[in-house]
Amino acid sequence: MENTKELRTWLDAMNLEHPLVIAGPCSAETEEQVLRIAHELKDSDVNYFRAGIWKPRTRPGMFEGVGEIGLRWLKKVKAETGMKTCTEVANAAHVKLAIENDVDLLWIGARSTVSPFIMQEIADALAGTDKIVLVKNPVNPDLALWLGGIERLYTAGIKNLGAIHRGFSTYEKTKYRNTPEWQLAIEFQNKFPDLPLINDPSHITGKRDMILEVSQTALDLNFDGLMIETHFDPDNAWSDAAQQVTPAALKQIMEDLKVRKETNTDEAYKKALDNLRAQINVADNQLIELLGKRMKVANQIGVLKKDKNVAVLQSKRWNEILGNMILEGESRGLSEEFVLKMFKAIHQESINHQEKIVNA
Ligand SMILES: O=C(O)C(=O)C[C@]1(C(=O)O)C=C[C@@H](O)C=C1
């Protein structure tokens, strides 16, 4: 699959003046709940009404969705509000039912994207459809697996495609439910700049009070849209209560978000930007030169260690460096997270060099 302008045809055809918005409850619970939320969202920027019909839950015994009957409620949403509808599909049977019930957009969840077998089954079931199909990232930060899933659909003749970035599972506890790993989303855009990319701040944050912040970051990184879980009584939702927002809160988020343009043709802006970018180029070259110098010193230490049969890893010294650099970084406005990541990478490279030397 190659990047082409045609990949965004379905989105361009919508002629939106704001990012694409998909909103609605995590799960369809009752007909009244679905219709009430839909009516409360009707006069807003929402383009697609979402509701989970089949819910992939971490453990058995939790609410696993209302199933097929929910598709009839989505039909009513469309008839009563004019909003297009969407839901998650996770196997061929779901696809068949969703298409029969005229769901407009289908998405494939993170727990399905991880399985090439499931992705192939879904691709075969969808073959040739003109429905829009969005693929969430797999739970693990694996760009090739994500793109591979999309390629299976593309190869099956599905042309209205897109991706949803919902963050990645980690063993460590972080402030996110699923860490965004924005770098991966940036890489995704570098490979497929024209494939529509939607952000799912609800699953990234797991908390409603962080949704605005994450949505803004997504828009600043040129995402094409947002999928935000919405419920009139979030605290009593049957699934994902902490991350859902009310329709009123969603409208407020949309109002507060700043949509920025990808570029600006103003001459003074371009001149100032060129100047600053030239400074960045100089700094980047200095960084690389300095890193090369540092590595040469690490190589010399490697030679000393080989000579005296000393272990490559020196944890005490390494911890000293980390502590000092975190403090230094702080005084220069660099976050601890960044300094740690950067020095861990430098240390690993140093170890790789020394490993080669001591084992030569
Ligand atoms: O100080 C050392 O012993 C080194 O080899 C240098 C260095 C580093 O790159 O800073 C590399 C490996 C050790 O674990 C500790 C530090």
Automatic annotation (TrEMBL):
Its EC number is 5.4.99.5. SMART domains: CM_2. Keywords: Coiled coil, Transferase. GO terms for biological process: chorismate metabolic process. The keyword Cytoplasm does not apply. Residues 266-293 form a coiled coil. Gene3D superfamilies: Aldolase class I, Chorismate mutase. InterPro entries: Aldolase_TIM (IPR013785), Chorismate_II_sf (IPR036263), Class-I_DAHP_synthase (IPR052899), CM_dom_sf (IPR036979), CM_II_prokaryot (IPR002701), DAHP1/KDSA (IPR006218). One of its GO terms (molecular function) is chorismate mutase activity. It comes from the Bacteria. Residues 267-358 form the Chorismate mutase domain. PROSITE patterns: CHORISMATE_MUT_2 (PS51168). It holds the Pfam family DAHP_synth_1. PANTHER family: PHOSPHO-2-DEHYDRO-3-DEOXYHEPTONATE ALDOLASE, PROTEIN AROA(G). This is chorismate mutase.
